[in-house]
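Memo to structure team: turn this sequence into structure tokens by end of day. - J.P.
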Amino acid sequence: MIEVKKVGMDSGLVSMFHRLPYDIYAKDPMWVPSDPTIEAELYEKKHNPALEFSFAERWVAIRDGKCVGRVSAIVNRRWIEKTGDPVGRLCRYDSIDDQEVARALLSAAEDWLVARGMEQAVGPLGFSNLDPCGITIEGFDKPATLGSTHTRDYYEKLWLGSGYEPMQDWDEYSIMLGDDVPESIVQAADKCEQRTTIRISDLQNRIEMRQVGRELFDLFDLTYSPLFGSYPLGDKMHKYYVEQYMTYLDPRYIYIARESEGHGHRMVGFIVAMPSIVKALQKCKWKLFPTGWWTLMRAMHHPKIVEILLAAVHPEVRQLGVLPMMIRRLLSRCVQDGVHEVQTTAILDGNSKAISSVMHFDAKPRRRKRCYVKNL
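Reply from structure team:
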């Protein structure tokens, strides 16, 4: 018999909810554990500013005293105000390979959404598009990036069997590097620089990283808000995500594009990348002491893989080749540092501008994720 329990603030159920992924992925070498501190604080309003405009609840499925599944549901008012559609989100889904468990979990979340006026459920989607989203459907032999997710190969079957239909895909890409940046890329970026006054600069230290944070996220809101699952985040959410990643960001791999004439030298583009710490996290599982911290620091200071977390270009200057200019600078730095691979996080399938820009650099698809929808 399966018993689905609402987690609420019950400490025992909260522990079950957060512990389950470690059981589900215990023998999966591609899984990357999430930061346990962030996960523990995700449903506390004093830590997560998204709860100022969202409602959220969690459930666990228990069979014979053992937790065999979990799911969370979210009603995000900002997203609903943007779209005008009463659609709830489902996230943090994990379960054993059992259709009965999946249906029981998802049904509990669906009933909760219906009680709050929602007419559809979509997921997996987090509080924002900067949270983990989607179920892995291709690339099970490759680990996720820090900003992405990896799920078991039977999850899609469970969602389809619970009445959900495919809604949106995301793709992740890989750019392999040699001893030099390909000449074709250098030439293309040079031509772009010759026809514009926009110039690319890097950041020197963490102080500069914080100084450009507000301007960077204003541009992020402008460029990402029209995309699926996105909405304007606002200052509190900006600070929340900056603090999540600040420890692991490296100014060597962050580039800013500014207009050198007019508009007050406004920021018109950025690319934020970071050394991959995936292998280090798989090794230490966020247990930083006594040796985990050293493992992470070594991965950050001498990376072999760099992950692109975010990239954006102001709509008014997209045709000027700003993204190729920034990527050329990033790849040049990576070659200098001995990095052999640059990975992207998820790019929306259908975002033709982003995909064409990435493919220009001989990028190869490495993983695909999918989001699902169901009428309630």
